[in-house]
Specification:
- The structure is a single chain.
- The chain has 1106 residues and is mostly beta strands.
- It folds into 9 domains: 114 residues, no CATH class; 94 residues, no CATH class; 113 residues, S-adenosyl-L-methionine-dependent methyltransferases; 99 residues, CalX-beta domain (Immunoglobulin-like, Sandwich); 97 residues, Immunoglobulin-like, CATH 2.60.40; 86 residues, Immunoglobulin-like; 74 residues, Immunoglobulin-like (Sandwich), CATH 2.60.40; 106 residues, Single Sheet (S-adenosyl-L-methionine-dependent methyltransferases); and more.
- Helix content is 1%, strand content 52%.
- The chain has 2 helices and 97 strands.
- The strands form 24 sheets. Strands 60, 61, 62, 64, 65, 67, 68 and 69 form an 8-stranded mixed beta sheet that branches. Strands 81, 83, 84, 85, 87, 88 and 89 form a 7-stranded mixed beta sheet that branches.
- A hairpin with a 6-residue loop joins β28 and β29.
- The longest helix is centred in the middle third of the chain and has 6 residues.
- The protein starts with a strand and ends in a 14-residue tail after the last strand.
- The C terminus is likely disordered.
- GO terms for molecular function: structural constituent of nuclear pore.
Amino acid sequence: MFDYQLSISEHRVRVQDVVQPRSHIMGQHTVRLSPVSTAELNPQGMRYCFAAGHKSISIPVLVNNTVPHSIKFSIESLDDASDIRYISVDRHGLGNLALVQRYPSGMPEEEFGPEPPQRKVIESNPEGQTPLQLEDTKGLVYIKVDRPGIVRLDSILDSEDEEIHIAGGTITIPECPNVSLEVDSREPHAIPKCQGDTFEGTLVVKGMPPLSVHYWREFDGKREDLYANGIDDDLNTSRGAQVIQVPVPLELPKAGSYSYGLTSVTDGLGNTVTEGHLPSASLSSFTVNVLSQPNVQWTTCSVERPRSMAKGASMSLPLRVSNGNASDAPWDVQIQHISPDGKASKQLRPVSFHTLRTQSIEVTEPGDYTLTGVGGKLCDGIVKEPEVCRVLVWPEPSMQVEFEPMVDKNCEVETGFMAHIVFQGTPPFYISYSVKKDGRVVDTRNIPNIQNTQYDLQLEPNQGPGSYQYSLTEFGDNHYKKQKPAQQTSTATQVVHTHADADLVRPSAQPLKLWSCSGDSLDIDLKLQGVAPWNIELQISSPHETKPLRLTGITSKDYQVSIPLPSDVHEYGGHFDIALVSVEDKKGCRRALNRPRIGVDVSRNKATARFTGAAAGMRDVHIIQGKSTKLPVRVTGDGPIRVRWENLDDGVPHWTTVRGQSEDLTVSHAGRYRLLEVVDAHGCAGYCDEQISAPITFIDRPSVHWPTTAGEQVQNGKIVRKAICEGGSDHVDLELSGTPLFTVNYKHELEGHASEAPPLEIASPLKSARIELVSSPPGKHLYSIYGMKDTNYDIRTPNLPSLEQEVLAKPSASFKSDARLPFCLHDSLIRRKGFPNAELALKGKAPFEVTLSIKNSDSTSRRTETILVTSNQWDVEFPAYTFDKIGPHAVRIESVKDANGCPEMPSESEQRSLFMDVAETAAILPMETRTDYCVGDTLQYQLEGTSPWIVTYDFNGRESRPTSKSAKFSRVAEKAGTFTVKSISHQNNLCITQVDSVKAVIHDLPSAIISPGRASVESIREGDQAEIVFAFTGEPPFTFTYQRSEISKKGKAGKVLETHTITGHKDKEYRFSSALEGTWTVTFVADKYCRYPPVPPSTEVTVETI
């Protein structure tokens, strides 16, 4: 039923669209029995109130089974019970007075549908009531109330002036409650408050008591809900709205932002107004910014941790103000000063802070500094511990000095003073002194950072003999500088005589270094002091021996002495020390000396150099021409070490510096190499024995050649190889020399396509490489070798000749088209004008020898013929062959040869066979014996012959010629008329048969129409009757079936209560009366030729779908 089929007009249609179900049985008649009518005021029990600016309120009235035509109601004042207003609204006032109708579908009566009552949702009214679920028998009207009061529904009349029963007809509507906050005569955001303050707000509430207010307080992001319930004025007896003031204490225990706001207000009837619907003039929320109390304290000073300063100096005392708000700035801090003895007290000038930070005050007097208070622009603050800063004065330092002469015990002469100093004060101390010789200052020094109160200062003359004066010039401690000591106790004088002394001249603090080429002795310089001549005693110490060395009769103050190396160190190297033991001058005063020793490190290691690895072997070292190799050399000794070497063939020396233990000599020439000399970092020569390396040789370069069997070389330098046929196989083995693995690079070009040739390569581990020669496509193929590689070299071969070979094309033959050729029985296989023929296309060199075969599909025998074709195109003809059987015939190309003698190249893509269809005379036969059909029926015929067929038919004077590939031909009757087949043909209209006996008459479907064609609803009272009328179209006599069912509910079909069938009815109208409730419908109708619904087809129908 839902597939598309071809109709007689050659359009694709669906049977259900042709039949048009809705146009044959239309309409229904529903009879209702009217029930009792009721009305209810405010059916949901909603609460209403008059908000500011609202002129009226719509109150719903629910009516059932009726349409109200007039309403009477009254409004009684809440303030005065005697003030009652009566309002009457009749049918003429609907829409512009106090009555507004809002009905669901199905009311009034003429809009009733045929379905049973359904529950439907009515939209909420303008006051936002919750939607009501209503049945179709119910409706809503709204009365408009324009003042507060008690509303009573007095009466409602329907269209027949009958009174509708009223259930629940009273509702009280007051003014909507209101609330506002009163906190200050000023703007709320301008209220200045400090932490710990309190203030009182007022809730001004208006409405019908008892009232309740829901409000909130928010601090630090946390909201707290607060309530004031049972608000009523017991002295006021009015039923209307009251205005009541409720005090609300508001505490501010913490600093921050406090927000207060209203959530809702509810009156005694339950009417609730939320914050967003309060009058705009009311204050619904406000915010109070509570300022924190500022704190002040000393930061690094207290009574327990006093601060100290020098006498007469000043110091900074830091104090910090914290916990204040910027809007409270500046903050003033009060400070009181009390002297150390407690007798004097004074108030300092207030210190002003503009930001919360640490700030210092400058003080010059000792004593206690007490913080007495802090206050901002708005709020007073708190003084926190420590509140007292104590300032002390450091005591001044002093110094006592005692000078003690230092005496050389050996020679009994004074050598300087030891000053014993005792300090009083605060460490660290410092002292400065000066030294005069013969009345002239020769030295001044400063000794800082003396941590102890007792200190010994050693004063020794360093300018030779003479009269010395030592004076302590200045001292100080941690707090006091540039103090002057007493003159009489801080100066000492002394006469110094010359005495014997000696010292070793040290080049540096590090030990001296001696190397393998440094000799067997060491020269050391001496500095002597006293009266010549001098006698010196030294000591030479090594790990295995210690020997003294005495020198006498030295007359020069600067003297150089030669120190022999200890025998163990001289031979093997090592460490030894040189020390001064004593000195004696002409006076015979011998002094023992304790001078730092001179250390000497002796190294006897000599540098060496030798070849290692492959360079030290006997086998040749092979390298590639143009490349280099490395000869490893290992060295010993103190680096960096320099090595001199040469190539024996050219004799040119080279120097290489070795910074580690080994180094590679980079060489690129063949031959043998020799080490000539090695020198360490100290310039000492070592051992190399003039070692000679292994021989260095070059690796031979590779080569490639065409073999002598590759072809014949012609004058232009090419090698021409014997031609091959397309698809054949051939190869050439190249001759290679060098070190495997080999790679040969070459190009393969087809003449006329040189630019398209990509580079190719072949690899071979042998001394030969095979090039597989290409045998497709036909043409001249050129092979050019342009380079090769072996394991060591990559070379170009520009002088190698190219190889040329011609590939001969294979012949082929195919039919130009694969379309099947139509023939009729007893035709000959010849060329026909106006029809397609069997065209043969040949490729190759003419002339061609072509072998063809032809056979019938039902026969096992095949007829074969060989034809000589002189051109590349030929139309197949066998005049002697006649088609004596119906069915498919096949012509096949068996073989083909061309003038080159190459075998053919068959291809699956070529058309090697061609089919010919031989058909007999076409015919068309009806599949049913009847000639009368109905709209929506399918006309079916059997076609005889070979597909495809061309059927020519006439329908209502219009001729059509459709083509059918199926042997079953069918068309849907989409409208009334006469269908006549005129002819049928097949094989591309080659064989035509005239038809004069195939005809069909098509009739319209009958229809039944009720009221007329729509769903009508008729309401009657008990005892009355309704008339039901059926109208028919079609050819009498009629047969029809009708029924009565329950009225549908919720969209579901009602139960069938009774069914009747009438047959042989000759009129086109049928009437009857009924007092029963229900829905009357027709389910079946039939006329003389057709019926609806039609009978489903029981025979197989061939359907062409899309």
